[in-house]
Amino acid sequence: MFKKILLTILLGYTAFSNAQDAVHNYGAMQIHGSTMVGFHMDLINDGEFDKNSGLVGFYGFDKSIVVSGSNIPVFYDAEIAVDNGLYLDTQIDVTNNVNLIVGDVITPRIDTNIFTNFMENAFYVGENDVSLIDGYAAFTNKDNFTFPVGDDNRLRPLGISSDEIDPLVKCAYFYEDPNSPSVFGKSFETQKIASEYMSVSEKEYWHLEGEALTTVTLTWDELSNIGALAEYLGDLKVVGWHKEQDEWVNLGNTNVEGGLAGGSITSLPFIPNDYEILTLGGNADKVEQFDTIELDNYYMTPNGDGKNDYLVLDGIEVSPNNSLQIFNRYGVLVYSKENYQNEFDGTSNRESVISRDMGLSTGIYFYIITMHDLKQRHQGYLYLSVKQ
Hints:
Layout: H1 2-15, E1 16-18, E2 22-25, E3 36-39, E4 42-45, E5 55-60, E6 65-68, E7 74-82, E8 86-88, E9 92-102, E10 105-106, E11 116-118, E12 123-125, E13 133-134, E14 137-139, E15 142-147, E16 158-166, E17 169-174, E18 198-200, E19 205-209, E20 214-221, E21 237-242, E22 247-250, E23 255-259, E24 262-266, E25 275-283, E26 291-294, E27 298-300, E28 322-327, E29 333-338, E30 363-371, E31 376-384
Parallel strand pairs: 2-4, 3-5, 4-6, 5-7, 6-8, 7-9, 8-10, 9-11, 9-12, 10-13, 11-14, 26-31, 27-31
Antiparallel strand pairs: 1-2, 14-17, 15-16, 16-20, 17-19, 18-25, 20-24, 21-22, 21-25, 23-24, 28-29, 28-30, 30-31
């Protein structure tokens, strides 16, 4: 161990100069084996600092530290404990682990080319409201990842899952009104919507760049004010500002978890690069106070005999613009459909339901059908009898 540390110090002595308030690398630095090197001042990297296998730590009490320079430093393990934040003026790459202890990693939001990049096998630990990536995080050559991004002391992660490896994906979270964004040079007007039955959050949004077909999972907390978007969590949806259509479109809801104070929602697959920003959406009728009418209760026996195989709702044809939700007795959403046309056959279409392709089990379910054309919401019970 002593030899490794001594070798690193000798290399460092010839590789960088120690200015009054910064370490300036203009040669070739390497951190070997289990060696640990701590920076308590700014790092300027104009040399080679990309063949490391030890730990690089940034430590600052009641101060900030800046990483800059013309070359990208590549760390194996990185540790962040900087009270007033680690500011990046250049991209940094991590090949193994980032330990977020205290203080944010801060990137300029106006420049998407500066980010913390998690390489193929890299991960992180310790993320929380006081230690997150405030600005852009990225990953390289992965098919799923959760970005530890946030803003204004709020961790607001975004998760993605793709069917293929994406070479580079970037993400940042903005706690601001999309009608008046701080860096995009245009307004994403929340009233410009592809469907008159959709509403868009004015509290926050995410910017995501990626070229692979992807599902995303967005999160919310108390400040997201989800209650203003939807009366029922099943009414929530992921929405995105489409670049070509120049308006907000519905990206769906395949799974929702949590409550009004906090939770997550997963979208349908889409290509992130087709959209400027993403946020949470709901139903426009939330503020219209629809009349709620008790509808008939229904009985289903989906066994293929042609009798009661489907949930056929009376009068659905007079309101083709509708949305159906079915919940089990525990309040879990097991089926949802926009523009329902009597096709429910007892099979769930929600990712959260185990063995959904095998059909739902026998029991009592609760349904809500929102008929937008009539400005009415009907609800009732459904008894599902499944032959075992």
